[in-house]
Amino acid sequence: MKLKAQIVDVDTGSVHKILLNPVDITHLAMFAGERVLLKYRKSETVAIAESTSLVDSGQVGILNEVQRELHVKDGDLVEVSSDVKPTSIKAIRKKMDGLALSGEEIHAIVEDLVAGRLSDIDISAFLVSEHIRGLTLEETVHLTRAIAEEGEQLDFGTNVFDKHSIGGVPGNKVSLIIVPIVAAAGLLIPKTSSRAITSPSGTADTMEVLADVEFSVEELQRIVKNTKAAIVWGGSLNLAPADDLFIQVEHPLQIDPRPQMIASIMAKKLSTGIQHLVLDIPTGEGCKVTTMEEARKLSRDFITVGTELGINVHCAMTYGSQPVGHAIGPALEAKEALETLMGGGPTSLIEKSTGLAGILLEMGGLAPRGVGRKLAKDILASGKALEKMRQIIEAQNGKASILPSEIPIGTHTSILRAPSDGYVATLQNRALVRLARAAGTPKFHGAGLYLHAKVGSRVKEGDPVITIYSETSGKLRDAVDVAKSLMPFTVEGMLLRTMTDTEQYSH
Amino acid sequence: MKLKAQIVDVDTGSVHKILLNPVDITHLAMFAGERVLLKYRKSETVAIAESTSLVDSGQVGILNEVQRELHVKDGDLVEVSSDVKPTSIKAIRKKMDGLALSGEEIHAIVEDLVAGRLSDIDISAFLVSEHIRGLTLEETVHLTRAIAEEGEQLDFGTNVFDKHSIGGVPGNKVSLIIVPIVAAAGLLIPKTSSRAITSPSGTADTMEVLADVEFSVEELQRIVKNTKAAIVWGGSLNLAPADDLFIQVEHPLQIDPRPQMIASIMAKKLSTGIQHLVLDIPTGEGCKVTTMEEARKLSRDFITVGTELGINVHCAMTYGSQPVGHAIGPALEAKEALETLMGGGPTSLIEKSTGLAGILLEMGGLAPRGVGRKLAKDILASGKALEKMRQIIEAQNGKASILPSEIPIGTHTSILRAPSDGYVATLQNRALVRLARAAGTPKFHGAGLYLHAKVGSRVKEGDPVITIYSETSGKLRDAVDVAKSLMPFTVEGMLLRTMTDTEQYSH
Questions:
Q1: Which of A21, A31, A54, A197 to probe the B interface (max B CBs under 10 A)?
Q2: Do B124 and A128 touch (CB under 8 A)?
Q3: CA-to-CA distance for B354 and B381, rounded, in angstroms?
Q4: Interface check A252 vs B, CB under 8 A
Q5: What is the DSSP letter of A186?
Q6: A132 and B132: CB-CB below 8 Å?
């Protein structure tokens, strides 16, 4: 049917939407939320129809994304027809029913997702079906390729290295140590990383304390050419935009189907042109992966998918039940990383960083098997990694000579102390994340936590265990409230909770 | 965090929504599409947060549904907090993982659905999980009760009868014959019915040709008191609003999980106060239920759920592979029903109507088992059903004495003729539905189809098989186009399709 266009100046972000009067929806023998085909002169596009009485019968409300495709003006007649059933929708239904999808079907889903032809209802249906039914490794490879192909593709040549963590452990600033070690050894490592979504600090947030992280593709190419390395935010490069669209629906559902996790990570590696990847899989209580068996299975899947895609993947299962190092939060983590590069730093951070860097050095043929870690430690101790980091900071418009003491940290602090003598029994990742977020991370770079004791440390009653840093007194108050209701650490022998609502920790 | 309210004068229909700037979404450690708790003075409510840069950081865009709950004005400070995980969301996740839900959990889902606290993402996740994992009969009973309890509850006393069809067969105007037969026998049958959603005519659309169908609860009570019967639209009575909200998501997904179908139908019966129900299950190729085995399983489930709810259910599997009677479309069906009540009408319609009415008469103790159909036929033949129908029409503000010839039918017609000699082999429900919709049903009451031949009829080349009726020449042209691309009937021996794109049917 022909309907009169009424331009509605609204951006949906990605979904292509039009508005129809309920009467016309009925007349088109369709439902709100279903797709229509729109034709105007020589242009046509598919959009999702919403029902609203804001638009009169006989009219079609055209939102910005659709207007840009059809080039219609107010009052133009647009041909609207229903009964549009794209391949992607049939494919989602097929996955719902437990059938395997062809590469063509998976590409259709990702293509329609990026083109704004899938509604929240459709995306949710796909992810829930994937969560329940799973994907074969063949489907996962197709999904990875499809996600990578829908975005920008970078090319840094033929021998490109990278390090990635599946996430979930706070304080994991290892990239800021691994990247300069590996680049100092002569390997190319253009690290694109993410900002914190639900964590206290993403690698991009931590690096931003020391230098800029938002660059165009051309600027990134220049930085990598000069320094053999980079630590930048991937978000400004339009890599794998489909991945972000999937994540926007995974989060409200609180699901993270394994094949989707694999495709998400590997697609970004594929589109960054990586050939050699060390993948950190933090394992243990409070991590995404809790058992070694699960970690081994996931590793095998990553390696298989990598092989299909021409990426050489080495998985490293690491201890993930407590934070890495002592610092949590952008500035505190940047400071700890810089201290480590300058010859200080906590053992757990040095060991994890040089262990992972060593694997990359071995993959690059710079050290025989089993000797990579030693080489990484030598490079770190020699000061060459620090020198390389200063080059990277300079190339990314930071102050190359910055000292740890020059990094501003939140001035509003509160100390959580041991309520009794004993050993620190647990430091709970999830509670620490909430505590750090309440203190203001990642928005306030100076906010965060410093852990004076780690699991196994002997403490006496009254010893400081955690210092909370905030940039405002209000955020500090929020954090102290969260500390009271959660239990970010336990000391063996301490009373876990008494029946009256007294405070757990003294301040 | 406290944010400044900015009233956004938009109705979402049902979902409670607020708008937040992406910066504040990050700061709240949440994702767009997740829920927030809003507090203003003594009011609080839960809403789904959408991310948009239309709202500045520090502000919260309040849509109408939320404004009505919080009574905030522009500039008021609203406390917004994240990490709201309602029971319903945990329950949906549980069903996703294949676990059975408690009554409390199912009630939480339906309550949050009706209160606008579930997004499309959540509702899709629940329905897809239900489609894949199924529901136990116990869960189905809880779902039915929850859907019924969230809406209006009618009470017509203790001996209330009803007839329902699970749908899917065009031309099924049997309610217009069953209701007056049963009421003429003295049983109470207040039939609430639906308008067409994807079919050419719902019972409410067909009845609307003869009388009004939209009434308040009080008016319905008065009509039923006077005539022992009614044939009205259920939509104006606010019965089981949750059901409509589920259907709005089921349709774009093109799924109709069996437990959801059972709960949908039985909840409406529960809220209409029905105690005795005959349920028509059209079975066969082109129906919702294609095999007798499936029909028997579905019948058993309906009966079990009915028993739990105190509703005596009798299921009747009927032949559903072709339309009932000869007429499709509101006016054509009303005309055929009236002719049948006046002593004419096609055998298939008489047999199906009196068969189902007979079961109700037996359930009501008015005929011994096996004799109900005969009694129903006697009542139909006696003219008492016609008399009762005229009373119902009058009570619903129609013209009691209306004759079939007075019902206006579309004047633009086209005849689809047999392309060869032979027997009509198929009349395809889905193709006929699309054809009738193209001709203008249900919007144009006079539009529709008349089937001159049914499956098994002997036709000669050139004999009329289907007449298309439209109210405008444009709609007739649309229907003729649809007839060319679909194949609404086949004659044994006719060429199904030749390799050039010639027309199938002569006009």
A1: A31
A2: yes
A3: 11
A4: yes
A5: T
A6: yes
**B97: nearest CA partner in chain A:** A132
Total CB pairs under 8 A between chain A and B: 115
Buried b (16+ CB within 10 A) or exposed e, B398-422: beeebeeeebebbebebbbbbbeeb
Look at residues A276, A274, A243 and name the one whose alpha carbon lies nearest to residue A149.
A243
A66 and A92 assigned to the same domain: no
For the stretch A323-368, pLDDT in tens is 999 999 999 999 999 999 999 999 999 999 999 999 999 999 999 9
- Please list the ranges in chain B whose pLDDT falls under 50: 497-507
Q: Which of A26, A132, A198 faces B96 most closely, judged by CB atoms?
A: A132
Concatenated DSSP letters for B381-433?
Answer: HHTHHHHHHHHHHHHTTS-TT--GGGS---SEEEEEE-SSSEEEEEE-HHHHH
| CATH for B127 | 1.20.970.10
Name every chain A residue with its beta carbon within 8 A of the beta carbon of B437.
Answer: 29
What is the Cα gyration radius of chain A? 26
Query: At which residue do the structure tokens 């794109």 appear?
Result: B501
A417, A479 contact by CB (below 8 A): no
Question: Residue A504 has what pLDDT?
Answer: 37
Interchain CB contact of A7 with B (< 8 Å):
no
Residues with Cβ within 8 Å of A479's Cβ and at least 6 positions away in sequence, in order, are A414, A435, A436, A438, A439, A440, A468, A470
Q: Cβ of A33 under 8 Å from any chain B Cβ?
A: yes
What's the pLDDT band for A494 if we cut at 50, 70, 90? Answer: low
- The pLDDT of residue B501 is 36
pLDDT for A158-202, tens place per residue? Answer: 899 999 999 889 999 999 999 999 999 999 999 999 888 788 999
Count of domains in chain B?
A: 4
Entry pTM: 0.88
Give yes or no for A77 touching B (CB within 8 A): no
Is the Cβ–Cβ distance between A86 and A108 less than 8 Å? yes
Whether residue A111 sits in one domain with residue A14 = no
pLDDT value at residue B52: 83
With tokens 């079975």, the residue in question is B283
Taking alpha carbons only, the member of B311, B239, B320 closest to residue B272 is: B239
Nearest by CB: A249 against B96, B121, B198:
B121
Cα A171 to Cα A449, A485, B30: the distances in Å are: 9, 22, 20
Closest CA to B143 of B263, B311, B273, B244: B263
B256 is catalytic: yes
Q: Which residues of A are catalytic?
A: 256
Give the domain CATH number at B19: 2.40.40.20
- Taking the CA of residue B387 and the nearest CA in chain A, the distance in Å comes to 34
**Do A93 and B34 lie within an 8 Å CB cutoff?**
no
Q: Residue B125: give the domain boundaries.
A: 87-134
Closest-CA residue in chain B for A33?
B252
**8 A C-beta contact, residue B251 and residue A34:** yes
- Give the pLDDT band (50/70/90) at residue A412: very high
Tokens of A302: 């990553």
CB neighbourhood size of B180 (10 A): 31
How far B72 CA lies from chain A's nearest CA (Å)? 24
CATH of the domain at A448: 3.90.1170.30
Chain B environment of A83 (Cβ under 8 Å): 434
Set B212, B256, B378, B463: catalytic member:
B256
Residue B231 bridge partners (DSSP): B191
Q: Mutate which of B90, B124, B255, B434 to disrupt the A interface (most A C-beta within 10 Å)?
A: B124
B437 touches chain A (CB under 8 A): yes
Residue at B156 is within a domain: no
Tell me whether B434 touches chain A (CB under 8 Å): yes
Residue matched to tokens 């700037």: B21
